[in-house]
Write a structure and sequence with these properties.
Layout lengths: L15 H10 L3 E8 L4 H9 L6 E5 L4 H8 L10 H18 L9 E10 L10 E8 L8 E9 L4 H21 L4 H7 L9 E9 L8 H10 L5 E4 L5 E2 L1 H5 L3 E6 L7 H15 L9 E8 H4 L7 H13 L3 E5 L4 H8 L7 E6 H7 L11 H10 L3 E6 L1 E2 L6 E2 L11 H8 L4 E3 L12 H10 L12 H8 L6 H6 L1
Parallel strand pairs: 1-2, 1-3, 9-10, 9-12, 10-11, 12-13, 13-16
Antiparallel strand pairs: 3-4, 4-5, 5-6, 7-8, 7-11, 14-15
Length: 482
């Protein structure tokens, strides 16, 4: 059986024309289309499908900035391809529908507003373009509106192809909103119906409204990476997904990779000490810095497949601690740094333990790239990057291993020395020796088995969160016992 991108079987994918026609023939569905930056590619599908007069109340493109401002209001930052602009468009068009179409005359109509604001590839093909796409819609005339908002990055190098891809995405979004809203994971996959994943990237999506109260946007964010729709996603302490490009643009970045299953005293000590060292750098300003807790997809698959409950437990704990979390498909550190470099040229920092640094200098991770380890290290250390290294205690000898005495493969020894003695690798010298043997994996096992003593290994307040919310397998039996 032929399989499409996004793991949707061909026989389950509805043709675009049929999607548009089904919407058009639904006498209860009625709405507006406001498309700016790439023609009116989405509404074109509905016009061509037939029966559009029963669906389309209005279709428009306010390309002139003065016209656009007169309709939707001014943007403080002067930018038009933003989430703020998209939401203003959606809300304005719905308010206009409600104002101009009497509910007395249209008691059974389910109103919707589809909008996009995008910029396609420029003439010199330097920037491929990006945009915001969304829909605000009802599933019952007496209900409040629901919203789906997503951000896309174009990968094609032809503006006409980008426009066509955007049009298909719009049809998929509208159809999914009305007919797949109760299956959000399937809805997410359906965005790529009839679209190759290498043509467009979806790196942020947020669901909101009464019908999506049960949807955890962090989980939807995870599925964007899992489904290959993007390489990295980000969410904030409030649980809502963030646009990485917006958060990281021209910022200093300090990233900490870990399993956080759960967050331990070691994790927080690495954070606090690496922050002090990072902020002491001349080229770093604290107010311009973003702290990122990164979890790789590989880490989440450590036990064979991704456990959604386990992922949400980690997310819940990190969000409760006020942290910004990034989920990536970058097993190798150089890919993470390369990704950050798309958005900033400012100084970056990676905080890690000795074991992680040894892995960076392991040649087996670079066999799949033509330039091997030298290409990878060029991408890693050519950037304005420093590594802050947390020590490791050798279980057999009791020796404290730092950058001064760690051992790498003999072939990597001189390369390691080069970066070490050029100030790219710095030891975290202030640490609590009593917690060096605390590892998340051991704490997790103790929690799951109901053993005593794990609370002392975690930062203040974290054990209470785990117990109150029953995270990481903490059971009711354990709750009564402790």
């Amino acid at each position: 059986m032929t399989q499409l991108k996004g793991d949707r079987q061909l026989e389950n994918v509805v043709p675009l024309k049929q999607k548009a026609l089904r919407i058009n023939l639904n006498k209860h569905t009625y709405g507006t289309f406001a498309e700016i930056g790439a023609g009116q590619e989405t509404v074109r599908h509905f016009f061509r499908a037939g029966g559009a007069s029963g669906t389309i109340a209005k279709a428009m493109s306010a390309y002139d900035k003065n016209f656009s401002d007169a309709i939707y209001g001014n943007e403080k930052d002067g930018r038009y391809v933003t989430e703020s602009r998209l939401k203003k468009m959606l809300h304005y068009e719905i308010d206009l529908m409600e104002d101009r179409l009497s509910r007395d005359k249209h008691p059974d109509k389910r109103f919707f507003s589809y909008a996009n604001t995008v910029t396609t590839i420029d003439f010199v093909k330097r920037f491929k373009g990006h945009g915001w796409v969304g829909i605000k819609f009802q599933l019952d005339p007496l209900e409040e509106y629901n919203e789906i908002v997503l951000h896309v990055r174009f990968r094609q190098t032809d503006s006409k192809l980008q426009q066509e891809t955007l049009g298909m995405l719009g049809v998929n979004l509208i159809y999914g909103a009305f007919y797949l809203h109760d299956k959000p994971k399937e809805l997410l996959k359906s965005f790529y119906d009839h679209i190759d994943k290498d043509t467009i990237e979806i790196d942020m999506v947020n669901f909101s409204g009464a019908r999506f109260m049960y949807v955890d946007n962090r989980l939807m964010s995870l599925h964007l990476v899992k489904n290959g729709m993007t390489e990295a996603v980000m969410f904030g302490p409030d649980g809502n997904n963030l646009l990485p490009a917006q958060v990281l643009f021209k910022k200093n970045i300090l990233a900490l990779r870990g399993s956080y299953r759960p967050v331990t005293k070691v994790n927080m000590e690495i954070l606090e000490e690496s922050k002090k060292m990072f902020f002491a750098e001349k080229r770093v300003k604290e107010e311009n810095t973003r702290i990122i807790f990164e979890i790789t997809l590989h880490n989440l698959r450590a036990e064979g497949k991704i456990n959604e409950r386990d992922f949400l437990d980690r997310a819940e704990l990190l969000c409760s601690l006020g942290q910004t979390v990034m989920i990536t498909n970058f097993q190798e550190y150089y890919k993470l740094v390369d990704y950050f470099s798309e958005f900033t040229k400012s100084r970056m920092g990676l905080a890690m333990g000795v074991y992680n640094l040894i892995q960076i200098f392991d040649e087996k991770y670079y066999r799949n790239i033509s330039g091997g380890v030298l290409e990878a290290f060029g991408k890693l250390f050519y950037k304005d990057l420093k590594i802050y290294l947390y020590p490791l205690k050798d279980n057999k000898t009791g020796e404290i291993i730092t950058s001064e005495n760690l051992k790498v493969h003999p072939r990597m020894k001189e390369l390691y020395k080069y970066f070490k003695y050029n100030g790219r690798i710095l030891d975290i010298e202030k640490y609590d020796s009593d917690i060096l043997e605390v590892f998340s994996r051991n704490v997790f096992k103790m929690i799951a088995k109901g053993e005593d003593g794990w609370e002392e290994m975690l930062p203040e307040g974290v054990p209470k969160i785990i117990k109150d919310q029953r995270l990481f397998g903490y059971s009711k039996r354990n709750r009564q016992r402790n």
